[in-house]
What does this fold into?
Amino acid sequence: MVEVEFKKIDGTSPGYYLVLLILTIVTLWGVYAWYLQLVYGHCVTGLSQRVPWGFGTAAICYLIGASAGSLIVSALSGVFGKEEFKIFSRSACLFALAMIVAAMLSIMQDIGNPENGLNVLAHFNFTSIFSWNAFLYSSYFVIGFIYLMAQFEEKKFLTKCLAVLAVAWAVLVHSGTGGIVGFVYSTELYHSSLTIPLFIVSAIVSGLGLLIPAYILAFRWTHRPLDRDLMWTLAKIMGALTILLLYCFAAEILDCAYVPGNQEAIRIYLFDFHYPYAWVFWFVQILGCILTVAILLSPWGKTDWGMIASGLIVAVAVYGERYTLITPGLGIPKDYVPGMIFKPYIVVPYYPAWTEYAMFIGLVTAAYLAWCIGLKIFAVLPERGEVVKK
Amino acid sequence: MISRRKFLVLAAVSSAAVATGKAFEFGRSFYNEEELEKELSKYEWGMVVLVDKCTECVKKIMEKEGITPEEFESGKKKVLPPCIKACNVANNVPEFENPRFECHLMRIIQVRIQENAEPLYFPLMCQECEHPACVEVCPTKASYKRADGIVVVDLHRCIGCRYCMVACPFDARVFLFKDPLEGLKVINPYAPIRKDGVPMKCEFCIWKIDTERAHGVKDPKPVCVEVCPYNALVFGNLKDPNSEISKIVRTSKVIRLRGSLGTDPKVFYKF
It folds into this structure.
């Protein structure tokens, strides 16, 4: 039986306030960008008629994924019986809740008519995966919230049941998010049955990528001991799943490229460096994943800074994957008249505006800000980040 | 530590937050929907594009305006035949300088079987599919198909998620990135005036054909059909076996674009 004593952090040091200040400033930068978008409309973004989805939509997928990944870490002890991971159960759940709120905010940021935003709850469309997701996201938040409350109440059986439900829901939520893209049959680069499982894998990877640095720094800065072997186990899971991600990328691209009609689109996407898509694919998505695995395989990978670096790199790489999943399929023309050459055949590049960077980064920092404040208000971080068996 | 009472209250409030979806559904219509549905279901509006005539029209305009095929193919210059010009004015389609935000309900594309073949030109607009992908994906049912087959957007319900634009196999929708009033020189008070943050699409000029139908006009027509100097666009009721469009579809070699997707467009192209 593993006993873990959770304790609020003091949160009185200048360092703590400095972290809060930095996170607040970046968050406010994002809020300002959002304000500009609300006032002037989506013309402040880099979107266009041909690429109407960009950073904002990628942010939705990414933040939901990070939330799902964190919740799975939180439930490792409850669902899989890995008692030693109980030390992360509360704080990872809190992180998952912060991330899902950020994801829902990113939906509000991305839509062009936010005053009608609540219509997604009022008018359910059975055939729309997006409509299902509106229900899944809000219920996911409620389940995660009750799961955290059950942990506070030390209700062991209820916690275990809710952990199972929360993990199942996290998988469902992220499957739904993958379906938003994967079910679109009109775009050759979108329609793929691999998108949903790929979303789940990248969710866990990005969730771990964002959590590992947060944990190492939180324990380090609060002078609480942390079992490095536990962290290393999480880093190894992240590394193994990153290799699986690379495998999925290869399988998906080869599958798509096998269709002669898709080969021109694949050529532009992967090898035409006149557009941003190939750059992001090779130098953010693929290089990021390879670097992550390389760091973890090197002796440096087992150190704190090695794990932090690999976590952050893979977190960026997964965001790159979200970008390349969404934008090239729109920027490269659809084949309106199959079997004929049609013109004008114009590839539309998509370069995010600073407002889109600001809104996305602002949401990530807002989630971290909420987590840091949560560590001070709630007893979610263990006194000792190591297993004490009784 | 949180008390049990507090926990239960919080849990109940959170659950209620999810369930309240229905509470927002306070909009009710006051007209007789059944009657309207019955009237509209007598029609199934469709269009046939006579590609040879369109090609002739576009080629003449290119010649007159000095637009080379290369300029058109590279997208540097656009061809605006009378149908598109009239559509833009009649439907309050705004003009923006920035090409990223450029709005249109119809656009001309060029097709040919191989690079050295003679090019054909025709307009691409909303194909008013029988199984529209945009309606399928819309999270709020803001995009819906009327009983007469026309796919419309309820701007009061639309959240502006642009999923319809992404799902459309023909890129037939455009998004209003800016306030349309900024890009309108004249306003047609009979057609809808939209706001920024929502998509717009060709709706076969429903503001016009509905009014004409209500006034007993036998063959109501969208603006583009009316102004076409070549009679290259044939519009009509596919449910009426004696209508011109029904006869063409029945007897001529017409195709539908991207037929393999199974969306069954109601715009046909006669080559």
